[in-house]
Specification:
The protein has a domain at about 150-510: Methylamine Dehydrogenase, Chain H, CATH 2.130.10.10. The chain contains two helices and 66 strands. The strands form 16 sheets. An eight-stranded mixed sheet has the order 27-28-29-30-34-33-32-31, with no helix packed on it. It has a six-stranded antiparallel sheet with strand order 2-3-46-45-44-43, with no helix packed on it. A hairpin with a 3-residue loop joins strand 40 and strand 41. It is globular and about 85 Å long.
């Protein structure tokens, strides 16, 4: 959840936030602030420079059939024409190609093992990526400062409550065998046969298990909760957190199998899951609520398993109950109503009198052994609460329950019900409900909106009384579920991980269960110049965290964490960016009270903060720092104590990449594919545009995601740039001071780059020919200045890599993954 500290105004006109005001926050645009720009950067169209500029149509068709204008966040004034029309199976194809390349890259290491089985994600005796965490962040961004993890989309609890599975939004599935005291990742193991497509994109939307055999796990990949946050899905742009369809494990998550859709049914690759329901009488019969429709898992006469679409539309919930030999599924269609089925194959309307106007997302709740009664938590089309409804018999009438609590606080008539919506029914008391939504409006720390609600008859209908019980949990609730048959164990999944309430009926509070939940969405990071154990990282919805020489990470600053920077000449000085403010610490950034902030504005979610490269011979260089916002680079001569110079860049896009070559030269890349060099002279800073140089301009237009200095050029005029977006495999280019050349490997070969977003570049200053790039799939290495590329796969999860840096004094390559934390690779 985006938050923005309040502050006073400095003499320069920029707001300064005193340390004592760090805990006072104002709500911003919620998850849209992060997710929509991420989506757009992933699918910004890459086109040859000689093609005409895109012209956006004035309107686009929405899912509900109305007209809605798509407005680019990264290229103001542009519309849907800037987005690539991604085929639905794009992510499956790219992952399959990565698996094939990975197999070739590790074949020599596997041969050296002479058939010995792999014990896990790494290959013994070889260089491997090593995890740096966070596996949990202490003093997290919630009331009571609980330890937090990353965003959780689904939870499945086995009978007895000790074995628990958690499906994370972008880090795969985690398992606990001690009731959530500790967790381990299940989707990072290196495949013995990497050509077998058995791993996933790690993006999860739903999870369910066979209660009689909890080793059988079903997962729906693709995160449903983010489905409606990208307003232009109608042009086939995939969600930020992409799926490959349904997957299954028969051995508790040790291995995974991908299941196909039936011929004639639309593929679920590139789509999203909201929920899964397993038939209690037949575990092979599973129903999935997806963004592509309502699907059933079916087995043909030959024993082959396929998923078959039973109803079109966007289905946001499905539940199942069974009693006395009767099974009944209920499913909710977004914007429509509720249907029921006895077998998962044939469906009909459930009840009468369900609201017909202004209906948005719907979440359903049932008791597992009470198939005759169902509750519906319903939002309107703006994501605010429409109402809570109850159906007492499948053919009866839906009744509105009066007096619902403020589970979805609305701002300007809009709520977050399209992103976070959950409901659970007490397993022993059908009149006791738990509702989950965005945030509890009366709390300074924006705690979770979870309400215990008692339902009672009132006249011909019902009325509820609600009491908030989520204050000790992180905001943005995606799932509420009881341990089977246990009213005293209510599990919660949210943007801050997993929480458990051991007495939800009484005085119990939610306690964090996040030790080992290594699924935090790390964005960018900073590292101490001489002590590699000291690190900072910005976290989506979880502020900024610091590690101080060990595995323990601690939350030290609020908001949505972005870029971080440590002064390499004086490491006690630290800068971090969050929600339009640059925060400065002079004590090493050790705690929440360390920071003083200056509001510099923000046009993209994570505005870049950078300084000149490490140069022990010139410590004064470290005082200079720049932050790029919009079309301006703000410069500070004293590492953020003051901001004295604004350098306007004559670009049409917005600054997205910023890199210093020295204290007198930096380079800027824009969201529209523009590249500038900016030099300081006796008369000030002066820019020159580079992407359009004749006769060899930069060959693509699109989003420049990163810039790296080519240290082989002593004049510091040469650079590499990386493109985000999609539509051309040539994501890395080189500029030698006069001309551009693609450095992405040869076309149609096995040693070129994949056509996925490339986010980060690093050049080895001690071995200039070695170039590294972090992409949405993998980290890639070129030993020959971009002529050829190979993945560096050993031990690295398939989560997107957002940041990539080489430690300035140690031979360590480090990567920040958006969903699985930080990793490092020894260069020697």
């Amino acid at each position: 959840m985006a938050t923005k500290p309040r502050g006073a105004t400095t003499k320069s006109g920029r707001r300064r936030t005193p340390a004592k005001e760090k805990l006072a926050v104002e709500r911003e645009s919620g998850p849209r602030g992060w997710i929509i720009p991420t989506l757009e950067s992933t699918y910004t169209k890459l086109v040859p420079r000689d093609e005409p500029e895109p012209v956006a149509p004035p309107t686009a068709r929405t899912r509900r059939g109305g007209a809605e204008r798509f407005r680019s966040r990264l290229q103001p004034g542009q519309g849907a024409a800037v987005l690539f029309r991604a085929p639905q199976d794009l992510w499956v194809d790219r992952l399959a190609e990565y698996q094939r390349r990975r197999a070739a890259a590790v074949a020599p290491a596997l041969a050296r093992r002479r058939g010995a089985p792999l014990p896990g994600a790494s290959i013994p005796g070889e260089r491997n990526w090593m995890p740096l965490g966070p596996t949990v962040v202490l003093d997290g961004q919630a009331q009571g400062l609980p330890p937090v993890g990353g965003r959780i989309a689904g939870i499945a609890v086995a009978p007895g409550g000790q074995t628990v599975y958690a499906a994370s939004a972008n880090g795969g599935v985690f398992r606990s065998d001690d009731g959530g005291v500790s967790w381990r990742a299940l989707m990072d193991a290196f495949d013995v046969d990497p050509t077998e497509f058995a791993s996933t994109s790690l993006a999860c939307g739903a999870i369910a298990i066979d209660a009689a055999d909890p080793e059988r796990i079903y997962v729906g990949t693709g995160e449903g909760d983010t489905h409606m946050l990208f307003p232009d899905r109608i042009i086939n742009a995939l969600p930020a957190y992409r799926g490959i369809g349904p997957i299954r494990s028969d051995d508790g998550g040790a291995t995974w199998l991908r299941e196909e859709t039936e011929a004639g049914s639309p593929t679920l690759a590139g789509k999203a899951f909201f929920a899964l329901a397993v038939d209690p009488a037949q575990r092979e019969n599973v129903v999935g609520a997806t963004s592509e429709g309502l699907y059933q898992r079916v087995t043909d006469v030959g024993g082959a398993v396929r998923w078959k679409r039973r109803r079109p539309g966007v289905f946001s919930s499905v539940v199942v109950a069974r009693s006395s030999g009767t099974t009944r599924f209920f499913a909710a269609e977004w914007g429509a109503g509720v249907v029921r089925s006895a077998d998962g194959a044939t469906w009909k309307k459930a009840g009468t009198g369900f609201p017909a106007a202004n209906v948005g997302r719907i979440a359903l709740g049932v008791q597992p052994d009470h198939p005759g009664r169902v509750y519906a938590l319903v939002t309107n089309q703006n994501g605010a609460l429409l109402g809570v409804y109850r159906l007492d018999s499948p053919g009866g009438a839906w009744k509105r329950i009066a007096n619902p609590p403020a589970v979805l606080p609305a701002e300007a008539g809009k709520g977050q019900g399209d992103y976070d919506l959950a409901i659970a029914v007490d397993p022993q008391d059908v009149d006791l409900l738990y509702l989950g939504g965005s945030y509890f409006a009366d709390g300074q720390f924006w705690p979770a909106s979870v309400w215990r609600c008692r339902v009672a008859a009132s006249g011909t209908g019902y009325r509820m009384t609600g009491e908030p019980i989520g204050q000790q949990a992180h905001a943005d609730v995606h799932v509420l579920v009881h341990a089977p048959g246990d009213p005293g164990a209510l599990w919660l999944g949210c943007d801050g991980g997993v929480f458990l309430n051991r007495d939800p009926r009484g005085t119990g509070v939610f306690r964090a269960r996040n030790d080992g939940m290594a699924c935090l969405c790390t964005n960018f990071f900073a590292q101490h110049p001489t002590d590699p154990g000291i690190l900072f990282t910005g976290l989506q919805d979880n502020g900024t965290a610091r590690a101080s020489g060990g595995p323990i990470w601690k939350h030290v600053n609020w908001g949505d964490g972005g870029y971080c920077l440590i002064n390499w000449a004086d490491p006690k000085q630290v800068l971090v960016f969050a929600n339009g403010t640059v925060y400065r610490a002079t004590d090493g950034g050790k705690d929440h009270d360390s920071w003083d902030g200056t509001d510099v504005g923000w046009e993209t979610m994570t505005e870049p903060i950078v300084g000149p490269p490490y140069n022990a011979a010139s410590p004064a260089d470290a005082k200079l720092v720049g932050v790029g916002v919009g079309k301006t680079v703000h410069l500070s001569p004293d590492f953020g104590a003051s901001w004295t110079t604004d350098v306007a860049i004559p670009m049409s896009g917005r600054i997205f990449a910023l890199a210093f070559a020295s204290r007198t030269r930096f380079f800027v890349g824009s969201t529209a594919g523009e590249v500038f060099r900016v030099d300081r002279s006796s008369t000030g800073w002066h820019s020159i545009r580079l992407d359009d140089v004749a006769p060899s301009p930069l060959g693509l237009r699109g989003l420049i995601s990163d810039i790296a200095i080519d240290w082989a050029d002593a004049s510091l005029a040469s650079i590499y740039v990386a493109f985000g977006g999609t539509g051309d495999y040539r994501h890395v280019w080189h500029f030698d001071g006069t001309r551009w050349e693609a450095r992405s490997g040869p076309a149609g070969a096995d040693d070129n780059l994949l056509d996925v977003e490339h986010n980060a570049l690093a050049v080895d200053r001690q071995a200039h020919d070695n170039l590294y790039v972090g992409a949405d799939i993998g980290v890639w290495h070129s030993p020959d200045r971009g002529a050829t590329w190979k993945p560096l796969p050993n031990g690295l999860p398939d989560a997107p890599v957002f940041d990539l840096q080489i430690h300035p004094t140690r031979r360590l390559l480090r990567a920040s993954t958006h969903g699985r934390g930080l990793y490092e690779w020894g260069l020697e």
